[in-house]
Design a protein that fits this description.
This protein is mostly helical. The protein has a domain of 167 residues: Fusion Protein Consisting Of Minor Coat Protein, Glycine Rich Linker, Tola, And A His Tag, Chain: A, Domain 2. A 3-stranded antiparallel beta sheet has the order 2-1-3, with helices on one face. Helix 2 packs antiparallel against helix 3.
């Protein structure tokens, strides 16, 4: 047994020697591929940091460009704010003008209502005068029937003529005042063009239906251009319905309106 162990010992040494040599080979290969530069490995070599020289002039130029751009933005914002403020001011002015126009129209309507009330009172007086004329006519007829003397009949006829003349004058006055009321309403609804002459005078033929609704309006004569004439026609149509006459018998389906705003009250 001892002899056998002595025969195997060289083989063991040989195996151990080859194993040590193999280990050395492996370690040598590992060190060769090591990342340590001192061992000659093939690991990636760290790139050196490259220093960049900063150009102060270029930085100043860039800063100036940024400042200029910021200034442009501020100016643009200021311009937008100014435009917004101007628009707001313009809206406020338009609202004030609209409020003033509404007040003027309300005042004009109140004046028209007052004038119409006065015309109604005058119409009542006219009716009373018509009743008086009818009574005189009845008396004249009765006197004639009873064969009263010619002097009484002549007196009655004179009275009838006087009363009829007064009635005609009153009717003419009422018609003139009603026409003035219509003209005042039309002029209150007229949007005066900028180039309208100071002495504007137009004759407008107006056609209306019962109730005052304007059916048609056309210019007979006018010293304004076509645009001004159209503005006058538009004002007439906008005034529909027209104020009613104080007496139904004064209603005229077609009448001529003298449009002279410079001669109206308040102008």
């Amino acid at each position: 047994m001892q002899a056998r162990s002595q025969r195997l010992l060289p083989w063991v040494y040989s195996v151990l020697l080859h194993a040590a040599f193999l280990v050395l080979m492996i370690l040598s290969f590992h060190w060769t591929n090591s990342t340590l530069p001192s061992l000659g490995g093939s690991a990636q070599v760290a790139q050196p940091v490259q220093a960049t020289v900063v150009d102060q002039k270029l930085i100043n130029q860039q800063m100036a460009l940024l400042q200029a751009q910021e200034k442009q933005k501020q100016e643009a914002r200021q311009k937008l704010e100014q435009q917004a403020q101007a628009a707001k001011t313009e809206r406020e002015q338009e609202q004030q003008k609209l409020a003033q126009l509404q007040q003027q129209q309300a005042a004009a309507q109140q004046a028209l209502n007052t004038k119409l009330a006065e015309l109604q009172q005058q119409a009542q007086a006219e009716k009373a005068q018509q009743d008086k004329i009818a009574k005189l006519k009845a008396q004249a007829a009765a006197a004639a029937k009873k064969q009263q003397n010619a002097r009484r009949q002549a007196e009655l006829q004179r009275e009838i003529a006087v009363e009829q003349g007064a009635l005609n004058a009153r009717r003419a006055s009422l018609l003139q005042q009603w026409t003035a009321v219509v003209r005042q309403k039309v002029e209150s609804n007229w949007n005066q063009p900028a180039n309208a002459p100071a002495n504007l005078s137009c004759k407008v033929q107006v056609e209306q239906v019962p109730g005052g609704t304007v059916a048609n309006a056309q210019i007979i004569s006018c010293n304004g251009n076509e645009a001004i004439q159209q503005s006058v026609i538009t004002a007439v149509l906008r005034s529909s319905p027209l104020p009613p006459p104080p007496e139904p018998s004064l209603f005229q389906r077609v009448f001529v309106l003298n449009f002279t705003p410079q001669n109206s009250p308040g102008n």
